[in-house]
């Protein structure tokens, strides 16, 4: 009987993690976001239920962006790497690509432009966010101005009104005008 209760408790943890995940998204205070996400991660990491474990990729990704948003880029990179490991376990090409993009974006924040570009160049240039990143990265690298312009133009053509904040569009327009 005790084993059945333990298994039931572990399988119900998925719903607890889902609720905590939503709380972490809903709160505006950054410290609360980090704390709630950490709580959800801890529940997932100790769980043996696959339906609970499946949350780890999303949670690591969210915690990565939490760290990134306050300039903790090395910590963010660690979370993005963990997210990629979890995404690869699911085998979903789309979430794997997103995890790789996050790693590359964080590498740019760490000013590791060559490494970031290496990752972005493996991703599809049919994706607007990949094009945006490639434009920014090429613009940072000497001798890649033409590539920067090409990808900035491509990203600008792909973005729809309201997709991204105006300051990001201004960066792309600046690359085109350079």
Proportion of helical residues = over 70%
Number of helices: 10
Integer-rounded radius of gyration: 19 Å
Along the chain, the helix and strand elements come as HHHHHHHHHH
DSSP strand count: 0
Distance between termini?
A: 71 Å
Give the CATH level 1 class of the largest domain.
Mainly Alpha
Q: Can you summarize the main beta sheet?
A: none
Average pLDDT taken over every residue: 93
Structural category is mainly alpha
Judging by the overall fold, what is the CATH architecture of the largest domain? Alpha Horseshoe
> What is the number of independent domains?
2
Q: What are the segments in which pLDDT stays under 50 over at least 5 consecutive residues? A: 1-6
Tell me the CATH topology of the largest domain: Serine Threonine Protein Phosphatase 5, Tetratricopeptide repeat
Strand content: under 5%
Overall geometry comes to elongated
